[in-house]
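Form P-L/3: holo structure prediction, ligand hypoxanthine.
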Amino acid sequence: MTPHIGASKGDIAETVLMPGDPLRAKWAAETFLDTPRLVNEVRGMLGYTGTYQGHPVTIHGSGMGMASLSIYANELIRDYGAKTLIRIGSCGAMQAHVKIRDVIIAMSATSLNTPSMGLFREVNFAPTADFSLLRTAVNAAEAMGTAPHVGGIYSSDVFYDERPDLTEQMTRHGILAVEMEAAELYTVAARFGARALAVLTVSDHLQTGEALPSSERQSSFGDMVQIALKAAFPS
Ligand code: HPA
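OUTPUT (holo model):
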Protein backbone atom coordinates (compact mmCIF):
# COMPACT_ATOMS: atom_id res chain seq x y z
CA MET A 1 0.00 0.00 0.00
CA THR A 2 1.03 3.57 -0.67
CA PRO A 3 -0.63 6.83 0.43
CA HIS A 4 -2.78 6.84 -2.72
CA ILE A 5 -2.94 3.22 -3.90
CA GLY A 6 -4.48 0.48 -1.78
CA ALA A 7 -3.20 -2.44 -3.88
CA SER A 8 -0.88 -5.09 -2.48
CA LYS A 9 2.58 -5.34 -4.03
CA GLY A 10 1.85 -8.06 -6.60
CA ASP A 11 -1.51 -6.54 -7.60
CA ILE A 12 -0.04 -4.07 -10.08
CA ALA A 13 1.29 -5.32 -13.44
CA GLU A 14 4.53 -4.08 -15.00
CA THR A 15 2.43 -2.60 -17.83
CA VAL A 16 0.01 0.16 -16.81
CA LEU A 17 -2.45 2.04 -19.02
CA MET A 18 -3.44 5.40 -17.56
CA PRO A 19 -6.62 7.18 -18.63
CA GLY A 20 -7.36 10.43 -16.81
CA ASP A 21 -10.87 9.32 -15.85
CA PRO A 22 -11.12 6.46 -13.32
CA LEU A 23 -14.46 5.35 -14.79
CA ARG A 24 -12.73 4.96 -18.14
CA ALA A 25 -10.22 2.69 -16.39
CA LYS A 26 -13.12 0.55 -15.19
CA TRP A 27 -14.75 0.45 -18.63
CA ALA A 28 -11.47 -0.34 -20.43
CA ALA A 29 -10.54 -3.09 -18.00
CA GLU A 30 -13.97 -4.69 -18.20
CA THR A 31 -14.04 -4.39 -22.00
CA PHE A 32 -10.49 -5.34 -23.03
CA LEU A 33 -8.93 -7.39 -20.22
CA ASP A 34 -9.58 -10.97 -19.17
CA THR A 35 -10.40 -11.51 -15.50
CA PRO A 36 -10.19 -7.81 -14.49
CA ARG A 37 -10.24 -7.21 -10.75
CA LEU A 38 -10.36 -3.98 -8.79
CA VAL A 39 -6.99 -3.32 -7.14
CA ASN A 40 -7.41 0.30 -6.06
CA GLU A 41 -10.25 2.59 -5.11
CA VAL A 42 -8.56 5.04 -2.76
CA ARG A 43 -10.14 8.49 -3.40
CA GLY A 44 -12.22 6.88 -6.13
CA MET A 45 -9.14 6.54 -8.37
CA LEU A 46 -10.00 3.13 -9.74
CA GLY A 47 -7.33 0.67 -10.83
CA TYR A 48 -7.94 -2.77 -12.31
CA THR A 49 -5.57 -5.60 -13.11
CA GLY A 50 -6.30 -8.37 -15.58
CA THR A 51 -4.65 -9.95 -18.59
CA TYR A 52 -4.44 -9.14 -22.29
CA GLN A 53 -3.56 -12.15 -24.44
CA GLY A 54 -2.15 -13.72 -21.29
CA HIS A 55 -0.02 -10.68 -20.34
CA PRO A 56 -0.74 -9.00 -16.98
CA VAL A 57 -1.96 -5.41 -17.41
CA THR A 58 -3.15 -2.75 -14.98
CA ILE A 59 -5.46 0.05 -16.08
CA HIS A 60 -5.36 2.84 -13.51
CA GLY A 61 -6.76 6.38 -13.53
CA SER A 62 -4.31 9.29 -13.39
CA GLY A 63 -6.75 12.06 -12.56
CA MET A 64 -6.63 15.36 -14.39
CA GLY A 65 -3.44 17.39 -14.60
CA MET A 66 0.22 16.73 -13.99
CA ALA A 67 0.05 17.14 -10.20
CA SER A 68 -2.39 14.25 -9.95
CA LEU A 69 -0.73 12.04 -12.55
CA SER A 70 2.65 12.58 -10.86
CA ILE A 71 1.45 11.06 -7.60
CA TYR A 72 0.19 7.90 -9.30
CA ALA A 73 3.12 7.54 -11.71
CA ASN A 74 5.62 7.91 -8.86
CA GLU A 75 3.88 5.32 -6.69
CA LEU A 76 3.23 2.88 -9.57
CA ILE A 77 6.88 2.94 -10.65
CA ARG A 78 8.71 3.32 -7.34
CA ASP A 79 6.52 1.23 -5.06
CA TYR A 80 4.89 -1.27 -7.41
CA GLY A 81 7.59 -1.75 -10.05
CA ALA A 82 5.62 -0.55 -13.10
CA LYS A 83 7.96 -0.50 -16.11
CA THR A 84 5.76 0.55 -19.03
CA LEU A 85 3.20 3.35 -18.61
CA ILE A 86 0.93 4.46 -21.43
CA ARG A 87 -1.35 7.44 -21.06
CA ILE A 88 -4.57 7.17 -23.04
CA GLY A 89 -6.55 10.36 -23.17
CA SER A 90 -8.06 13.22 -25.08
CA CYS A 91 -6.50 16.40 -26.39
CA GLY A 92 -7.36 19.66 -28.12
CA ALA A 93 -5.96 20.07 -31.65
CA MET A 94 -3.71 23.07 -32.36
CA GLN A 95 -3.09 22.59 -36.10
CA ALA A 96 -5.51 22.92 -39.00
CA HIS A 97 -4.47 19.58 -40.51
CA VAL A 98 -5.28 17.75 -37.26
CA LYS A 99 -8.96 16.83 -37.15
CA ILE A 100 -11.48 15.74 -34.53
CA ARG A 101 -11.16 11.94 -33.86
CA ASP A 102 -7.56 11.86 -35.13
CA VAL A 103 -5.07 9.89 -33.08
CA ILE A 104 -1.90 11.61 -31.88
CA ILE A 105 1.12 9.74 -30.60
CA ALA A 106 3.23 12.16 -28.60
CA MET A 107 6.93 12.10 -29.37
CA SER A 108 7.68 14.97 -26.98
CA ALA A 109 5.74 17.09 -24.50
CA THR A 110 6.47 20.78 -24.11
CA SER A 111 5.25 22.55 -20.99
CA LEU A 112 5.33 25.82 -19.13
CA ASN A 113 5.65 23.95 -15.87
CA THR A 114 5.64 20.44 -14.44
CA PRO A 115 5.77 19.11 -10.87
CA SER A 116 9.41 18.18 -11.70
CA MET A 117 10.43 21.73 -12.54
CA GLY A 118 11.79 22.43 -9.06
CA LEU A 119 14.19 19.53 -9.45
CA PHE A 120 15.63 20.73 -12.75
CA ARG A 121 16.14 24.36 -11.65
CA GLU A 122 17.74 26.17 -14.60
CA VAL A 123 17.57 23.19 -16.96
CA ASN A 124 14.83 22.83 -19.57
CA PHE A 125 14.47 19.06 -19.59
CA ALA A 126 12.90 17.67 -22.80
CA PRO A 127 10.26 15.07 -21.89
CA THR A 128 10.38 12.42 -24.61
CA ALA A 129 8.45 9.24 -25.35
CA ASP A 130 10.14 5.84 -25.25
CA PHE A 131 11.11 5.13 -28.85
CA SER A 132 10.38 1.39 -28.83
CA LEU A 133 6.86 2.04 -27.53
CA LEU A 134 6.37 4.90 -29.96
CA ARG A 135 7.35 2.67 -32.85
CA THR A 136 5.11 -0.23 -31.81
CA ALA A 137 2.20 2.17 -31.20
CA VAL A 138 2.54 3.70 -34.66
CA ASN A 139 2.67 0.21 -36.19
CA ALA A 140 -0.38 -0.88 -34.17
CA ALA A 141 -2.38 2.21 -35.14
CA GLU A 142 -1.53 1.76 -38.82
CA ALA A 143 -2.45 -1.93 -38.67
CA MET A 144 -5.85 -0.85 -37.31
CA GLY A 145 -6.36 1.46 -40.29
CA THR A 146 -5.57 4.65 -38.39
CA ALA A 147 -2.98 7.12 -39.67
CA PRO A 148 -1.74 8.69 -36.43
CA HIS A 149 -0.06 12.07 -36.19
CA VAL A 150 3.31 11.68 -34.50
CA GLY A 151 5.00 14.75 -33.04
CA GLY A 152 5.14 17.22 -30.21
CA ILE A 153 2.28 18.05 -27.89
CA TYR A 154 1.82 20.68 -25.18
CA SER A 155 1.08 19.66 -21.60
CA SER A 156 -0.71 22.55 -19.94
CA ASP A 157 -1.60 23.12 -16.29
CA VAL A 158 -4.81 24.89 -17.19
CA PHE A 159 -7.85 23.82 -19.15
CA TYR A 160 -9.35 27.30 -19.00
CA ASP A 161 -6.35 28.99 -20.57
CA GLU A 162 -6.00 32.76 -20.29
CA ARG A 163 -2.86 32.95 -22.46
CA PRO A 164 -3.89 32.89 -26.13
CA ASP A 165 -0.38 34.10 -27.00
CA LEU A 166 1.07 30.81 -25.73
CA THR A 167 -1.36 28.78 -27.80
CA GLU A 168 -0.31 30.87 -30.78
CA GLN A 169 3.40 30.15 -30.19
CA MET A 170 2.76 26.43 -29.72
CA THR A 171 0.84 26.32 -32.98
CA ARG A 172 3.54 28.32 -34.73
CA HIS A 173 6.16 25.80 -33.57
CA GLY A 174 4.23 22.81 -34.90
CA ILE A 175 2.79 21.49 -31.65
CA LEU A 176 -0.05 19.15 -32.60
CA ALA A 177 -2.33 19.38 -29.59
CA VAL A 178 -2.76 20.31 -25.94
CA GLU A 179 -3.51 18.03 -23.00
CA MET A 180 -2.59 18.11 -19.32
CA GLU A 181 -0.51 15.09 -18.27
CA ALA A 182 2.10 13.70 -20.67
CA ALA A 183 5.13 15.91 -19.86
CA GLU A 184 5.19 14.79 -16.24
CA LEU A 185 4.57 11.14 -17.16
CA TYR A 186 7.57 11.20 -19.53
CA THR A 187 9.71 12.95 -16.93
CA VAL A 188 8.92 10.64 -14.01
CA ALA A 189 9.36 7.56 -16.24
CA ALA A 190 12.75 8.87 -17.41
CA ARG A 191 13.83 9.51 -13.83
CA PHE A 192 13.19 5.94 -12.76
CA GLY A 193 14.12 4.06 -15.93
CA ALA A 194 10.57 3.20 -17.01
CA ARG A 195 9.12 3.45 -20.54
CA ALA A 196 6.32 5.93 -21.24
CA LEU A 197 4.08 6.99 -24.08
CA ALA A 198 0.92 9.05 -24.58
CA VAL A 199 -1.68 8.01 -27.15
CA LEU A 200 -4.35 10.68 -27.55
CA THR A 201 -7.57 11.22 -29.45
CA VAL A 202 -8.54 14.71 -30.58
CA SER A 203 -11.72 15.53 -28.64
CA ASP A 204 -11.87 19.23 -29.52
CA HIS A 205 -10.27 21.72 -31.85
CA LEU A 206 -8.86 24.98 -30.56
CA GLN A 207 -9.04 26.68 -33.95
CA THR A 208 -12.47 25.58 -35.17
CA GLY A 209 -14.24 25.15 -31.82
CA GLU A 210 -15.49 21.71 -32.94
CA ALA A 211 -15.90 18.98 -30.33
CA LEU A 212 -16.30 15.21 -30.48
CA PRO A 213 -19.94 14.32 -29.77
CA SER A 214 -20.21 12.56 -26.40
CA SER A 215 -21.82 9.56 -28.15
CA GLU A 216 -18.50 8.95 -29.93
CA ARG A 217 -16.18 9.39 -26.99
CA GLN A 218 -16.45 5.75 -25.87
CA SER A 219 -15.55 4.23 -29.25
CA SER A 220 -12.60 6.56 -29.87
CA PHE A 221 -11.41 5.80 -26.36
CA GLY A 222 -11.67 2.08 -27.15
CA ASP A 223 -9.43 2.53 -30.20
CA MET A 224 -6.75 4.09 -28.01
CA VAL A 225 -6.92 1.24 -25.49
CA GLN A 226 -6.35 -1.22 -28.32
CA ILE A 227 -3.44 0.77 -29.74
CA ALA A 228 -1.87 0.97 -26.29
CA LEU A 229 -2.27 -2.76 -25.61
CA LYS A 230 -0.87 -3.69 -29.01
CA ALA A 231 2.02 -1.24 -28.51
CA ALA A 232 2.88 -2.81 -25.15
CA PHE A 233 2.64 -6.36 -26.51
CA PRO A 234 3.57 -6.38 -30.19
CA SER A 235 3.10 -9.82 -31.71
N1 HPA B 1 -6.97 21.75 -23.18
C1 HPA B 1 -6.36 20.98 -22.28
N2 HPA B 1 -6.58 19.69 -22.21
C2 HPA B 1 -7.45 19.13 -23.09
C3 HPA B 1 -8.11 19.89 -24.04
C4 HPA B 1 -7.84 21.26 -24.09
O1 HPA B 1 -8.38 22.01 -24.92
N3 HPA B 1 -8.92 19.05 -24.72
C5 HPA B 1 -8.74 17.83 -24.21
N4 HPA B 1 -7.85 17.86 -23.21
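COMMENT: Residues 90-92, 156, 159, 178-180, 203-204 surround hypoxanthine (CB under 6 Å).
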